[in-house]
Design a protein that fits this description.
With about 270 residues, the chain is of the alpha/beta class. It has two domains: about 220 residues, 3-Layer(aba) Sandwich (Rossmann fold), CATH 3.40.50; about 40 residues, no CATH class. The strands form three sheets. A six-stranded mixed sheet has the order 6-7-8-3-9-10, with helices on both faces. The chain has a four-stranded antiparallel sheet with strand order 2-1-4-5, covered by helices on one side. A hairpin with a 2-residue loop joins strand 9 and strand 10.
Length: about 270
Amino acid sequence: MSAFTPQSLAISVQGLEKSFKNVHVLRGVDFEVARGSIFALLGSNGAGKTTIVKVLSTLLKHDAGAAAVNGFDVASQSGKVRESISLTGQFAAVDEILTGRENLVLVAKLRHVADPGVVADGLLERFALTEVGSRKVSTYSGGMRRRLDISMSLIGNPPVIFLDEPTSGLDPQARLEVWAAVQELAGHGTTVLLTTQTLDEAEHLADRIAILHEGRIIVNGTLAELKALLPPAKVEYVEKQPTLEDVFFALVGGSGAGNNGSSAAGRGVATSD
């Protein structure tokens, strides 16, 4: 039985199936995403994550089951679904010849948004890109490009955004920049469905996590619920050495997801048997 009311749901997927010739990619996928939340589809390459995103964004027709986005059926109301969503793929879809601001203005004009310049300036500020807005995108770092890509996808204020492996190929600092941008989206009420094969990304960002394996959701819950599936931790005193991420951020500045002082040698930590 659903834990959500229909009005509180941004995405609903029931018994979704999809095959490509003899390859059964999706085998009865079920999940729901609450409005304004971050939902992570976690799985290895080939698990079916991108196929789900393509079905939900109306780029691919499913073979069986049902799916709805923002209350609209993806098969029979595909036009309404497309008006409700934005999709950011695994590679930033930005024009390197243009400046960051010019990219935003161009998309705003294509989508017939009023005051394209005002919209562009607002998004540059929202995603901390104002200082580089007049620079050509070819000079941007990977994190800047991805943040610009995400900001472009928000033009027109879609209530639902799909991020397909948003930090693929990014360095640690750029990854943190994108994480902050994703959290900012949810903070403004946008529903985010992201696919990832990175465990710490799902752990850091998602309100709920669904693990997709061989075309099936094998578990779906909050981080606390998923951790509760394992035996309780056994408290031991261990000598915990700094991680490479701790070293990286200590040298270059900034703070990593786990760089909160807990990695100092000689602390007591909980470990599993």
